[in-house]
Design goal:
The complex is a heterodimer.
Chain A (H helix, E strand, L loop, with lengths): L1 H33 L6 H19 L3 H7 L1 H14 L9 H27 L14 E4 L2 E4 H23 L1 H11 L1 H6 L4 H23 L14 H11 L4 H21 L5 H15 L13
Antiparallel strand pairs in A: 1-2
Helix pairs in contact in A: 1-6, 1-9, 1-10, 1-11, 2-3, 2-5, 2-9, 3-9, 4-9, 6-7, 6-9, 10-11, 11-12
Chain B lengths: L1 H22 L9 E7 L6 H20 L11 E7 L4 H14 L4 E4 L3 H14 L3 E3 L14 E3 L4 H18 L6 E7 L2 H17 L3 E8 L7 H10 L3 E5 L3 H13 L6 E4 L7 H6 L1 H4 L3 E4 L8 H11 L6 H20 L4 H10 L30 E6 L2 E6 L13
The chains are: A mainly alpha, B alpha/beta.
Chain lengths: 296, 406
């Protein structure tokens, strides 16, 4: 019985961590390629949840499909946001650009949250799915169906991103632009386009994560606040700029959150996460997968 | 040169657009009476702030439509709302801002007890009378002169809710032997759990088998609901004020087929979005103890509210705020002055038995003791039945009979 309970805690942690992982990859990609800390990442996730919700309400599209359908429009949105706003504060002297980037993404976050509150009202909405309240029973261990589907899709999407980055010319060009923008430009790689691509993909991924989250989590304009800190912790834990690192970081956070409850009361659930975070940073300041020279 | 000229033109144009907006709605006639509403209009409790504002707007429209405040020659009431946001610090600074910018006669807010505790300190310092629906006992335990609490306090709610559920369970031949406490650590919830843990449960011989309290937001409800499943308490006292947390718990309860009856604390558990998110079957028979809810005989008021707002039903937050505005109006009538101190004195002496100012309260009478607590304030029990929350206790004002257990 005790063993089954432990397995249940581990499984729950993994399932929660899967979606954290997908949320974090986008943030890690954007930082890895552009060196931009995107504070508005959680707000794009919230928009992804709303788009999935409207797909479900207006088109009766299942949110698991809706999450995938959110990818193309959010890629375009990310591309446009980069072209119109971020491109103006990236690519130059990094020291001077940093403040502008922080203010821009923080401002973007505030504008998106408040505009959504004004337009869509603060009333929470939810997509009712049968699988949100059903579980796969594996012996005494129960796997929530919504979280299981979301976990599998998060794995698939993360795998696709990994293949894209390692197996395609465009992916290699993206990594080259991340490693050394100057050398990449000598190889006829348009670094600005690569930045747009990275931002588009990063936003599309977090929107998809939002869509998956919407299968079991209510949607409201300020939902980002519940996740953004965890996303940052995951990215730094895994090693700033490392995609596998962000993924593992996300999974680890879910696991630590769940296993913390075995020894600490609920009120200290996130304490476990931050203790683990500080411990990793103390022992390995570059993060689990980080190198001295940050790479994608 | 040309560029700087065009920049100046843009700035001038922007100013021309913005400046009138800044002053729009901010220039009431000199004799208007200004009331502050400090409530969460953004952040995770924004929905509750929105509901409170609906109630305030409705009362103000009625009062002004009926000729305003007669003792002040028909002065109109004007609402000044300030966003309490999602933290005590934001709530306090919102109160500070709204109360110092112009002369405010009285204030209402701020829904969450933790916010109210901070906001009433500002009101006390600035000597502005403050009406609150928040539950925490400590709100009126600090010797404040300007704070008036119309709701029954949390500890009293805990006592009455426990008495009620033990009685009901006994009548249904399912006596309560084991209880669980599940919820967050916001002030009102904590004051509700405290007497249960410390004395009430033990006095009735009830064992506390689950006691899980978290800081919102909750990452996942599996561990909590797993404990409920393995211990099967005969009643669960439930205080998850943050909507996503509550939804996660209720979904998990359905998933794990937990059958323990749920006794909530607070009106957050009876908002319309619950039906849309978890469905009416999951909600059926879940009950909660609240300070106010539409009672028998208030059908007209509810109908009017629904027509105005498009909300499917009326709940505590708009109802109390509606009554609070009316109560301030009555106090001004009696004080014959819009001066905050005079209104405070009038509220301290007030004794009203009828009219819209008592519409939210049970029993229907408003008078305050020396601490600022409404004398005789009794909580209501509201229960979800067929996708709508009905007042089920006290029976005299119930809109439906209570149903016990699924």
């Amino acid at each position: 019985m005790v063993f089954a309970e432990l397995v249940q805690y581990v499984v729950t942690g993994l399932l929660v961590g899967g979606v954290y992982a997908l949320m974090s990859i986008g943030l890690g990609l954007i930082f890895g390629v552009m060196r931009v800390v995107n504070f508005a990442q959680g707000d794009f996730m919230m928009l992804g949840m709303y788009v999935t919700y409207f797909y479900a309400v207006a088109g009766s599209i299942d949110p698991l499909v809706g999450a995938l359908l959110a990818v193309p429009p959010f890629f375009v949105l990310g591309w446009i946001v980069h072209r119109l706003l971020l491109a103006r504060v990236t690519g130059g002297d990094p020291g001077r650009q940093h403040d502008a980037q922080l203010i821009l993404t923080l401002g973007l976050s505030l504008v998106i949250t408040n505009a959504t509150t004004m337009i869509l009202t603060p009333t929470p909405r939810g997509i009712r799915t049968s699988y949100a309240t059903q579980a796969f029973a594996v012996g005494p261990v129960l796997l929530n169906q919504a979280r299981s589907y979301a976990f599998v899709m998060a794995l698939v999407l993360a795998g696709l991103v990994y293949l894209f980055l390692t197996r395609t010319d465009l992916g290699r060009a993206l990594r080259a632009a991340a490693d050394d923008p100057e050398a990449a430009s000598y190889q006829a790689i348009d670094v600005r386009t690569m930045h747009g691509l990275a931002f588009g993909v990063g936003i599309a991924l977090v929107a998809a994560a939002g869509g998956l989250l919407a299968t079991y989590y209510p949607i409201e304009p300020n939902v980002a606040g519940n996740f953004i800190v965890l996303m940052f912790v995951a990215v730094v834990l895994g090693g700033l700029g490392s995609i596998p690192g962000a993924f593992v970081g996300g999974i680890l956070i879910g696991l630590v959150q769940s296993l913390t409850l075995l020894v600490l009361p609920f009120q200290l659930q996130n304490t476990g996460v931050f203790v683990a975070f500080l411990l990793v940073l103390y022992l390995r300041p570059q993060g689990l997968f980080g190198r001295r020279a940050r790479t994608v | 040169m040309k560029r700087s000229l065009s920049r100046m033109l843009i700035v001038a144009l922007a100013l021309a657009l913005v400046v009138p907006v800044l002053f729009m709605g901010q220039a009431p006639a000199a004799d208007d009476v200004k009331i502050a509403l400090v409530a969460p209009l953004s952040g995770r409790w924004a929905r509750q702030g929105q509901l409170k504002k609906m109630g305030a707007d409705m009362a103000i429209e009625e009062i002004n439509g009926q000729g305003g405040i007669k003792a002040l020659g028909g002065a109109r009431i004007v609402l000044r709302e300030a966003d309490a946001g999602d933290s005590v610090e934001k709530a306090v600074s919102a109160a500070q801002r709204v109360l110092t910018r112009e002369k405010i006669s009285a204030g209402i807010g701020s829904w969450l007890s933790s916010f109210t505790l901070g906001v009433t300190e500002v009101a006390e310092r600035l000597q502005v009378p403050w009406l609150s629906l928040s539950y925490a006992d400590s709100i009126t335990e600090r010797g404040f002169k300007y704070t008036f609490q119309t709701s029954p306090v949390s500890s009293l709610q805990a006592e009455q809710a426990l008495d009620l559920v033990t009685d009901l369970a006994k009548k249904n031949n399912r006596p309560i032997k084991k209880a669980g406490i599940v919820g967050d650590n916001t002030a009102a919830s904590m004051f509700f759990y405290k007497p249960l843990r410390e004395k009430l449960l033990a006095a009735k011989g009830i064992e506390l088998v689950v006691d899980d309290v978290w800081t919102p937001p909750l990452a996942d409800a599996t561990a909590i609901v797993q404990k409920l499943r393995s211990t099967q308490p005969d009643i669960v006292f439930y205080g998850a004020t943050n909507f996503p947390d509550s939804i996660q718990v209720l979904q998990k309860i359905k998933e794990f087929s937990v059958k323990s009856p749920i006794q909530g604390v607070g009106a957050w558990l009876v908002t319309p979005e619950y039906v849309k998110t978890v469905g009416k079957d999951t909600l059926d028979n879940i009950q909660t103890v609240v300070a106010a809810h539409p009672m028998k005989g208030q059908e007209e008021l509810v109908k009017k509210f629904k027509q105005r707002t498009g909300e499917p039903f009326m709940t505590q937050d708009p109802l109390c705020t509606y009554a609070h505005v009316w109560l301030i109006k009555e106090a001004i009538e009696q004080a014959k002055s819009a001066d905050p101190k005079a209104i405070r004195d009038a509220l301290a002496k007030i004794d009203i038995l009828s009219g819209p100012a008592v519409s939210a309260f049970y029993p229907p009478r408003v008078r305050f003791d020396e601490r600022g607590r409404r004398i005789g304030a009794t909580p209501l029990i509201v229960q979800w039945q067929d996708g709508e929350p009905y007042t089920v206790v006290p029976i005299a004002v119930a809109t439906r009979p209570i149903a016990w257990h699924r």
